[in-house]
Amino acid sequence: MARHCEVCGKVASVGSNISHAHNVTKRRWEPNLQRVRVKDGSTTKRIWVCTRCIRSGKVAKA
Fold it and tell me: Cα angle at 58 between 2 and 43, to 5 degrees?
């Protein structure tokens, strides 16, 4: 599966680049994912988390 936030499920969105001459090509907006160490009960593991989840405190960093 493509990279996604393992807390909120945020994934890449798609759209178009549009030039001044109105040439249209596909593009992707990737979420800003960081690999962080997270406490999971008594163990720690590394997961992909978006920066909004880190900033809002949805993740307890190890």
Answer: 80
The CA distances from residue 32 to 8, 29, 42, 62, in Å, are 13, 9, 28, 20
- The CA distance from 39 to 5, in Å, is 16
Written as six digits, the tokens of 44 are 């720690």
Q: Which residue has the tokens 């405190």?
A: 57
pLDDT digits (tens, 9 = 90+) for 10-25: 999 999 999 999 999 9
Q: Report which secondary-structure segment, H or E, holds 56.
A: helix 51-56
Return the domain boundaries, the chain.
13-56
